[in-house]
Write a structure and sequence with these properties.
Low-confidence stretches: none
Bound molecules: threonylcarbamoyladenylate, magnesium ion
Helix content: 25-40%
Radius of gyration: 19 Å
Oligomer: single chain
Length: 323
């Protein structure tokens, strides 16, 4: 397997971002992936750092660039559920139904892996995480490949996920070979992850698709994960900006707390889109990035309600507040 992008001189940093809606950009990204390079990929949730799922050295580079432990498995992205059999086996009727109704979309399913899937993707597990992203640039790129792409969020490990091409550039610079600009992510938090290999499917990560919607389709209540180690990285501190995050349950409490901090000369911002959950999800990560850039010391974040995508927002804010 060729890995020309390991040693070749790369694009200068000022030319790394290209318009992902242009065919020429998709062709270049395809070529880079086929030669073992890494591409910043827009999805509806967050930007991914994509590598050819069949290329071991490219997969290895993902872990190097992110400084991510190899025990943290990756999500495979495919362009259609018609390709599920290439990467998984023993797919349950329930999993097929979720795929049929929710893909393309922000749902990742854990399925039994096929023999094609590398141990680098699964962390040596018998399961593989797969999704079909709902973004025309990602789908266009995937349709040009014989393979799938493995793509974690395109940020350094433990940090805030990127929701624009510029965030990817700021975080990873020339560690990525090309960044496809697909505009700001429409959802803004990562996909919901459900383990479909369990007798009762388990919710491993709340995300862009609400738990209620999945439970409606399956006509059952999702279980909690029985074994924390099945989904490493989900229980610890994660999604962390440099500033401290304090969580409060109402706008009034946020105002009072911010005044206290200001009177101690602490630079504070209030994060509160609690009146509009979709807007909260879409802007939360960017808000935290801006707060860091502006030298903010404490973000007082108003927790949204637990319904719909609010559950994912609460999950990310809680993890971001855990140092
Ligand atoms: O929305 C998303 O899912 C984004 C976009 C780029 O698609 N991707 C994303 O990937 O959030 P990442 O790597 O940041 O998070 C993937 C999570 C990790 O916490 C990982 O532990 C879990 O999925 N995961 C992947 N495969 C798994 C497996 N076989 N068993 C348990 N957990 C798995
Ligand atoms: Mg991530």
């Amino acid at each position: 397997m060729l890995n020309k992008y390991d040693d070749m001189s790369r694009r200068p940093i000022s030319e790394l971002i290209v318009d992902g809606f242009r065919d020429s950009a998709i062709l270049e990204a395809t070529d880079i992936l086929l030669h073992g390079g890494l591409v910043g990929l827009p999805t509806e949730t967050v930007y991914g750092l994509a590598a050819d799922a069949d290329n071991l050295s490219a997969l290895g580079r993902i872990f190097d660039v992110k400084s991510r432990p190899v025990s943290h498995p990756l999500i495979l992205h495919i362009d259609s559920d018609s390709r599920l059999e290439e990467w998984s086996r023993d797919i349950s009727p329930a999993a097929r139904e979720l795929a049929r109704l929710l893909w393309p979309g922000p749902l990742t399913m854990l399925l039994y892996r096929s023999s094609r899937v590398s141990n680098l993707v699964t962390g040596g597990r018998d399961t593989v995480a797969i999704r079909v992203p709902n973004h025309s640039v990602a789908l266009n790129l995937l349709s040009h490949l014989e393979s799938a792409v493995a793509a974690p969020s395109a940020n350094r490990f433990g940090k805030v996920s990127p929701t624009t091409a510029q965030h990817v550039l700021t975080d990873l610079g020339t560690d990525v070979d090309l960044i496809l600009d697909g505009g700001p992510c429409s959802i803004g938090v990562e996909s919901t992850i459900v383990d479909m290999t369990m007798p009762i499917p388990q919710l491993l990560r709340p995300g862009g698709i609400s738990v209620t919607r999945i439970e409606e389709i399956l006509d059952l209540k999702l279980d909690s994960p029985t074994d924390g180690s099945r989904a490493p990285g989900m229980l610890e501190s994660h999604y962390s900006p440099n500033c401290t995050i304090e969580l409060v349950e109402s706008t009034e409490s946020a105002i009072i707390r911010a005044q206290q901090l200001k009177s101690d000369s602490i630079r504070v911002h209030i994060l509160d889109f609690s009146h509009d959950l979709n807007k909260y999800a879409k802007h939360m990560y960017e808000f935290l990035r801006d707060a860091d850039r502006q030298g903010c010391e404490v973000v007082v974040a108003v927790m949204p309600s637990d319904s719909g995508i609010g559950r994912a927002i609460r999950d990310r804010l809680t993890k971001a507040s855990t140092k």
